[in-house]
Specification:
The chain has about 325 residues and is an alpha/beta fold. The chain has helices spanning about 10-20, 55-60, 75-80, 85-105, 140-155, 190-195, 225-240, 255-270, 290-300, 305-320, and strands spanning about 1-5, 25-30, 45, 65-70, 110-115, 160-165, 170, 205, 220, 220-225, 245-250, 255, 275, 285. About 40% of the residues lie in helices and about 15% in strands.
């Protein structure tokens, strides 16, 4: 298939492009490079912004695509609380522009990058796809709104779509050549990496009194390569006639903040002092996925998502690229 990957120069997009190429697909990336990095990809790049309706329509109609993998979105929950207008304009209106362009071009297959943020604080664990959607940030709400849009486009225009709700993306390529150059780093593991490299002054772990074995939060970390493979399998599922589904993409177990910290210390060899702080409002004690549905329907299984591999590949990228891609 010939696939357009929006946000293809981003962290997860660039790894998914590599996986698509390995599986024999032809790929074109679309990215405005506001937060992506052209150096992370080796495929043709259309530099365009999804908020520009005419540019998106031109991108879809100027070439014959079989499907789209849609990553392009802002993805920091804290930023979304401070600037909700950014998230609804970019994530929701941008997705509407993309869907309209797909309809105009006759492109029928879409894999949408969603998030476990659509669930909010889970009422029970593990989190299944049938859990009530109750996002607690504009970021999570923006993902939920796009998911709500998809069935209407399926009904009206015969699109076939899959939404992948993934948990905590982490890790880098096995060869250390591409990785997470998000700026500023907001996720725990990249922040620990930057602290270990002396690029971040002070780091706080929030909450030591949660009802977990060591008192710190527990999260489901999924290796970016396993995320990439899920997107390719979802595309191939749609190509074979599948439609209208959503899947959790997580490992099904969690690691605590202290476990992650100790693994970073072990892999990096850096003592890495951190401060222990109070809980942050809204942080649940524990979140991890029920991934039985994606295993059953798509035949997916995580291959690289043990904590040591996640941290080792992330350290390989960050230690080899202390300034990221060097394009900022």
């Amino acid at each position: 298939m010939k696939i357009l990957v929006t946000g293809g120069a981003g962290y997860i997009g660039s790894h998914t492009i590599r996986e698509l190429l390995v599986r024999g697909h032809e790929v074109v990336a679309l990215d405005n490079l506001e937060r992506g990095h052209a150096a992370s990809i080796q495929v043709p790049l259309i530099r365009a912004d999804l908020r520009d309706r005419s540019a998106v329509r031109h991108a879809l109609t100027s070439q014959a695509f079989d499907g789209v993998v849609h990553f392009a979105a802002y993805c920091a929950a804290g930023e979304s609380v401070a600037h909700p207008e950014m998230y609804f304009e970019n994530n929701v209106a941008g997705a509407a522009n993309l869907l309209g362009a797909m309809v105009a071009a006759g492109v029928k297959l879409l894999v949408f990058s969603s998030s476990c943020a659509v669930y909010g604080q889970p009422a029970k664990l593990p989190v299944t796809e049938g859990h009530e959607l109750h996002p607690e940030s504009p970021y999570g709400e923006s993902k939920r709104l796009v998911e709500l849009m998809l069935p209407w486009y399926e009904q009206a225009h015969e699109l076939r779509t899959v939404a992948l709700r993934y948990f905590n993306a982490a890790g880098g390529s096995l060869d250390g050549s591409i990785g997470d150059d998000s700026r500023p780093a907001t996720r725990l593991i990249p922040r620990l990496m930057k602290a270990a490299l002396g690029r971040l002054d002070g780091l706080t772990i929030f909450g030591t009194d949660y009802p977990t074995p060591d008192g710190t939060c527990i999260r489901d970390y999924i290796h970016v390569l396993d995320l990439a493979s899920a997107h390719v399998l979802a595309l191939e599922y749609l190509q074979a006639g599948g439609s209208g589904d959503c899947f959790n993409v997580g490992v099904g177990v969690g690691y605590s903040n202290l476990q992650v910290l100790e693994m970073v210390r072990k892999v990096s060899g850096v003592a890495l002092p951190v401060r222990m702080g109070p809980r942050r409002p809204g942080d649940p004690a524990e979140v991890y996925a029920d991934n039985s549905r994606i295993r059953r329907v798509l035949g997916w299984a995580p291959q690289h998502s043990d904590l040591e591999t996640i941290v080792r590949t992330d350290w390989l990228w960050h230690s080899g690229h202390p300034d990221g891609y060097g394009d900022r």
